[in-house]
Amino acid sequence: MPKYLIVTFLVLYSVSAISQDSTNPVSFKWDNGFKLESQDEQFSFKFGGRIMVDHAYFFQSDELTEKFGPLITKSGTEIRRARIFLEGKIYENTHFKLQVDFANDRAVLKDVYIGLSEIPGVGNLRIGHVKEPFRLATLTSSKYITFMEPSSTSFFAQERNNGIVLFNDFFNNRLSAQAGAFRNANNDSNDITANDGYVATGRITSLLVHNAEKRQLLHTGIGYSFRKPDSKEYKISIKPVSHLAPKYIETGAIDEIENIRLLNFETAYIQGPFSFQGEYLTAAVKTLTETLNFSSYYGEVSYFLTGESKHYKSSYDGFDRAKPRKNFGGKEKGAGAWEIALRYSDSDLSNKNVMGGKQSDVTLGLNWYLNPSTRLMINHAWLNIEDKGNANILQGRLQIDF
Hints:
402 residues; mainly beta; 16-stranded antiparallel barrel; single chain
């Protein structure tokens, strides 16, 4: 961990020194993060980070206690994320990013890549540890998701992987496509351990409606991922809406795997302060003797009581930062932005001889955006584990990103 901090502070010191040089044609400004940019816009450099502090309370029925045992703890606290990042642009079309997470008392590389843009006939390319182009909920940054955790569809495959991804937009961003090839690394950026087979993932999305002035958007998409692990093993284990919560459903290790085929459908709709987002994912797990089928889906709605709207960033990046009309306190002396949200999700991990269980949950959320960089989140979830019992979780998060 210290070596990452030393490098980061050296880079930040250099940036500060450059920005003070009046002979250097650059600007140093705040744009929801610190940004250094040359006057001709060929070079830019941005650095920042995020801190998320979570606390949760857990309650489960007597039936769940009988089947899974008593809760190890009825409450928990953690630093969910503690990240810093450096990203930039060199000679206009070369990009890079380095993002490190220091949560859980260890340093873990997240986004680490080199990219090229405006490649004739291709569009954009990234090589390194990148997000697979799959599932809208996981492509959207954790800084901007509506609930504290993405839906249960995120547990069917890792979010990031080592490899190469190509992506481009067509017809004024109305149609977008991404495709990637990866070495399966179990979400580990270390190429020494990235040796569990290969993955091929692709996604196509469309903006059927996009009117920024009227704050209207309709997004649809489909993604497919083919995964062939050398270990011949696959496992789905789902946490119920809280990173601190115990797990009630899982397939256990499925052996003799030939391949896994994931298919995901997604849609999102925005009309002023109202939004809807939903996804449906199926997993076909082919073994030497049979094909097992599992599934998960969710639907969520949200509404800004203070009139703001969600912002769409891009097909590959999902949704962007929400900005209050008037920040809480300070010069504006406003109330910030207030958002209420409701989500229903359902997962089925039982098929044939695999009895992983079925789980559904309803989550009620309240978000208070004090300013574009600071948010307080409260989630209350009610869970039902089919034929096993019920549980509910009350949790909160205070986050800041810059």
